[in-house]
């Protein structure tokens, strides 16, 4: 079975667990899947084994606590500690794919915003002048920051998994995080000095670049 | 890690290898076998050990259809695993008798 089939089978089989066991198992599943530097296939295999074990134990009248103990987080950490790390080649592919998707989304969204602003709100021109050096510098800083934000999100989600955090508080945390992360990009753009050649740019270039990057990202994905 | 957990971990590894030597098993089966022999470990504790043994290439897992239907991951002993088990046997013999004797209250030194 490949990784995709394991995940699909897991989704189906999980429904057979009792409500309590399912909650216990799914918390562990989320937490273990969020350990992003582990081999995905090995991760899914052990998750499948744990699920199969629970299903059989359930038929014998045992609960998740009977099988995996009172402290699911500790248990999940033990599992993660023994999982093999993702191989470097794959890691580079994933990073490359991530950067391409990020840049594609950035290019396409900025083009769409510009077009909407132009046609609906009568703001902005479709062609405008940009400082090439400034634009490139902005992107070079934005990529590592986006990565950092992703890692912060992953760590936050892991931290949150076994705690029953109040929905209002969670919403507040997301809101603050979203605001500061978008704000950070605006601060960079605002303080970046103008340098490099001034060139004529067209909004549709952004769209074309975005689509090309998206296709590239897709092809990297199918390589993995 | 305390001496107690380290000791138990090593023993559990040896026992798991010994069960797999007798018979190819999958996770749930293995936990039942261990309990059958009177080892009262929590069932879940076998999975971190199974992962470690695979990393050390002492056992190999293979997805296979089980008699009851669904695919299960069955574990086999590798040649290195067989060697490790012989080592464990040897070491166990080496400590078993002296420790038993020391613990025995009736014997005088």
Can you walk me through this structure?
The complex is a heterodimer of chains A (224) and B (109). By secondary structure, chain A is mainly alpha-helical. Chain A has two domains: 3-82; 88-223, no CATH class. Chain A contains nine helices and two strands. Chain A has helices at 3-14, 19-33, 40-59, 64-68, 72-82, 88-120, 132-161, 167-191, 203-223, and strands at residues 127-131, 198-202. Chain A has a two-stranded antiparallel sheet with strand order 1-2. The longest helix of chain A is centred in the middle third of the chain and has 33 residues, at 88-120. The radius of gyration of chain A is 23 Å and the shape is elongated. The model of chain A has no long low-confidence stretch (mean pLDDT 91). Chain B has a three-stranded antiparallel beta sheet. Chain B has a single domain (3-103), classed as Arc Repressor Mutant, subunit A (Orthogonal Bundle), CATH 1.10.10.10. Chain B has four helices and three strands; from the N terminus they run H-E-H-H-E-E-H. Chain B has 109 residues and is of the alpha+beta class. Classes of the chains: A mainly alpha (224), B alpha+beta (109). Chain A binds chain B through residues 1, 9, 42, 45-46, 48-50, 52-53, 56-57, 62, 66-69, 75, 78-79, 81-84, and chain B through 26-28, 31, 42-44, 47-48, 51-52, 55, 61, 63, 70-73.
């Amino acid at each position: 079975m490949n990784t995709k089939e394991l995940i699909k089978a897991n989704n189906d089989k999980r429904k057979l667990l009792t409500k309590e066991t399912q909650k216990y198992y799914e918390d562990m599943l989320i937490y273990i899947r969020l350990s992003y530097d582990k081999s995905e296939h090995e991760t899914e295999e052990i998750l499948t084994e744990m699920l199969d074990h629970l299903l059989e134990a359930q038929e014998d009248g045992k609960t998740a606590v009977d099988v995996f103990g009172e402290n699911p987080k500790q248990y999940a950490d033990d599992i993660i500690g023994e999982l093999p790390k993702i191989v470097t080649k794959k890691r580079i592919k994933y990073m490359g794919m991530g950067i391409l998707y990020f840049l594609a989304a950035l290019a396409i969204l900025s083009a769409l915003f510009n077009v909407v602003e132009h046609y609906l709100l009568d703001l902005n021109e479709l062609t405008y002048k940009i400082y090439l050096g400034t634009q490139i510098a902005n992107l070079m800083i934005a990529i590592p920051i986006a990565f950092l934000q992703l890692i912060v999100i992953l760590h936050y989600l892991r931290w949150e998994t076994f705690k029953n955090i109040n929905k209002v508080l969670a919403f507040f945390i997301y809101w603050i995080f979203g605001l500061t992360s978008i704000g950070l990009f605006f601060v960079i753009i605002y303080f970046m000095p103008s340098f490099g050649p001034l060139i004529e740019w067209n909004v549709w270039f952004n769209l074309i670049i975005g689509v090309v990057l998206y296709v590239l990202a897709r092809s990297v994905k199918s390589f993995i | 890690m305390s001496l107690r957990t380290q000791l138990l971990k090593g023993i559990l590894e040896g026992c798991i290898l010994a069960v797999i030597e007798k018979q190819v098993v999958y996770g749930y089966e293995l936990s039942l076998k261990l309990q059958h022999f009177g080892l009262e470990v929590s069932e879940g504790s076998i999975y971190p050990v199974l992962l470690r043994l695979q990393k050390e290439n002492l056992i190999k897992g293979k997805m296979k259809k089980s008699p009851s239907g669904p695919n299960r991951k069955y574990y086999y002993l590798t040649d290195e695993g067989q060697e490790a088990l012989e080592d464990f046997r040897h070491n166990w013999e080496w400590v078993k008798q002296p420790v038993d004797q020391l613990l025995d209250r009736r014997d005088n030194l």
